[in-house]
Amino acid sequence: MQNTTDQIRCIVCRRECENGITVLEEFICRDCEVEIVNTDVTDKKYAHFVGKLRNIWIQEAPDQLI
């Protein structure tokens, strides 16, 4: 978990936060992390979170194909 005094923008909610996690060099704030792991797959928000997280791997994909 990232704990720093620097504010980092969350890739899900776009807010600047201090606490959260980094996945493949992208930051997810603690509030979004908790909401993601507690969202049921039948919830409308689930597809939103999948899309946001998919963007992490899409950004990383070209480098990994080389």
Shape verdict: globular
Order of helices and strands: EEEHH
Specify the biggest β-sheet.
3 strands, antiparallel
Number of helices: 2
Domain tally: 1
> What is the arithmetic mean of pLDDT?
84
Low-confidence stretches: none
Distance between the terminal alpha carbons, to the nearest Å? Answer: 30 Å
CA-atom Rg in angstroms: 13 Å
Strand order of the largest sheet: 1-2-3
Structural class: alpha+beta
> Would you count the extended β strands for me?
3
Report helical residue fraction. 40-55%
How much beta, percentage-wise? 25-35%
Task: Sum this structure up briefly.
By secondary structure, this protein is α+β, with helices and mostly antiparallel strands.
Explain what this protein looks like in three dimensions.
With 66 residues, the protein is α+β, with helices and mostly antiparallel strands. It has one domain (2-65). Helices cover 47% and strands 30% of the residues. The protein has a 3-stranded antiparallel beta sheet with strand order 1-2-3.
Q: What labels would you give this structure?
A:
three-stranded antiparallel beta sheet, 2 helices, 30% strand, 66 residues, alpha+beta
Task: Outline the secondary-structure elements.
Blueprint: E1 2-9, E2 16-23, E3 26-29, H1 30-38, H2 44-65
Antiparallel strand pairs: 1-2, 2-3
